[in-house]
Amino acid sequence: MTSSVSSASLVDRKLVVKSQGAPTGTDLYAADSVRQLFDRMSRTYERVNVVLSLGFSARWRRQLARLAPMQRRGASILDAMCGMGETWDVLTRRFADARFSALDFSPQMTGRARVRNLSRHAGRFAVLERDMLASGLPDASFDLVISAYGVKTFDQEQSVRFADELARILRPGGTFAFIEVTEPPSLLLRMLYGLYIGTIVPALARLLVADTEQYRMLGRYLRAYGDGRRTLDALAGHPLLVVEARKHFFGCATSFSGYRLAQAARP
Ligand SMILES: C[S@@+](CC[C@H](N)C(=O)[O-])C[C@H]1O[C@@H](n2cnc3c(N)ncnc32)[C@H](O)[C@@H]1O
């Protein structure tokens, strides 16, 4: 189930709770903290993620791929914050004739992504171990940039840098689509969501893996991310980007999709 919301309505809602309280400038969002967290999680992430999300993570990846418009033959697509390539099956099904790059700054995640690339995708992904906020990728080099669950670990200032980098590497007219787990608007669902990420996820993680600290940390990022307002603000605030936010499954996930203008709509 998806519903489209304008950026204004998402921004204006009073129930944007935790994103204002996101601890900006602390170690939580330092590149090393995030990189080390995902390095440590890489062994269990895929298996645990499917179980803990009750299958929604895979469903939302499919919805994410459908949000991106069909691409011409040979189009250049970047999977940003690709993890170990969890989104690649849906991407290669939808964009069979595209050229793919995938970027992540965790050596463990990219190491596993490279194994998946060879074993399941005949090496068609160029896997790059780089920081998305200083990617070094050429200007105007992508027709589509996509990311599943990759933007919650950017604080407000990093989200603005991400929007700058996105506008720089997209061709004029190029498109983007991101999806992230978010806090739902309904009070009841929000209480259940809080209980789920605060108590149930760590408990389930304990059953599945020995070290649950990483899954507690993930809960911290999700609580601070709230309804995703900071991503929307950063994308909507960029003069070259046009963005639309959509809620998925009553707002338990939010996608941000849009395109890059040829020239700024406003000074
Ligand atoms: C929750 S995982 C998502 C992985 C995958 N996209 C998926 O669909 O499950 C987030 C990934 O973003 C990566 N990441 C976070 N910040 C990054 C940055 N600044 N540059 C590159 N990768 C980053 C992490 O290393 C991690 O692998």
Automatic annotation (TrEMBL):
Transmembrane annotation, as ranges: 187-209
Presence of the UniProt keyword rRNA-binding in the record: no
Entry superkingdom: Bacteria
One term of GO molecular function: methyltransferase activity
GO biological process: methylation
InterPro entries, alphabetized: Methyltransf_Superfamily, SAM-dependent_MTases_sf, UbiE/COQ5_MeTrFase
Keywords: Membrane, Methyltransferase, Transferase, Transmembrane, Transmembrane helix
PANTHER family documented for this protein: METHYLTRANSFERASE
Name listed for the protein in its UniProt record: Methyltransferase domain-containing protein
Organism: Humibacter ginsenosidimutans
